[in-house]
Amino acid sequence: MKVKELDKKLLDTFRADEPTIQELRNIAKNLGVKLKRNMNKKEILKAVRKEIKRLEDSLNQQVEEVSDYKKLPKNPQKPPKSNESKELPQKYGKDKFKLMPVNPHWVYVYWNFSEKSRKKLKKLSKNSNIAIRIIKKSKEDQEAEKKVIETDLKLDQNGNTYFHLPKDNSTYIAFLGVEDKKG
Fold first, then answer.
1. Mean pLDDT by 10 residues, the chain (183 residues)
2. Are 111 and 153 contacting, i.e. CB atoms less than 8 angstroms apart?
3. Which positions ≥6 away from 21 have C-beta within 8 Å?
4. With left for phi above 0 and alpha for psi between -120 and 50, is residue 93 left, alpha or beta?
5. Residue spans per domain, the chain
6. DSSP state string for 99-118
7. 96-179: what fold?
8. Rounded to an integer, what distance in angstroms lies between the CA atom of residue 113 and that of residue 96?
9. How far is it, in rounded angstroms, from Cα 180 to Cα 183?
């Protein structure tokens, strides 16, 4: 590819008539050929011709490699279908309840219950609700926990929700449970 980078004028000079030693040194420099100070014109000419031949051979080899690509079949095989086109499953069959902080005032909660767990929770909650309760834990008084946020869950589906926390830089605890008439 270095041949393309050379000045056309230099290559024309090299091919047309007998270049001067200074022109040969310039061509060698552009080709990346390292020369010794004491090299004469004949040695420089030999080194430059050798490098040009090497570059032309490598260029011909690259042209052959590119022409091999044209020999591909006209009807190439279709690539296998990827998993990206498939939809995500609605249920994974595992129990999962995660609470993740979004920023100091918001948390994200998501859940996924197996059928077995759903049936157990439905039995427990015949006359009551399944709820997520988030409680602020007081640092001064361990007993002084106060209810902050509560929401009901629909067990028919997996879900997620966001909760706004009223105070930042506080400790909160999340509970998942059955809320009866007593609370």
1. 52 66 84 88 87 78 60 62 66 81 87 82 74 76 60 66 83 78 66
2. yes
3. 40, 41, 44
4. left
5. 2-71, 96-179
6. EEEEETTEEEEEEE--HHHH
7. Immunoglobulin-like (2.60.40)
8. 6
9. 5
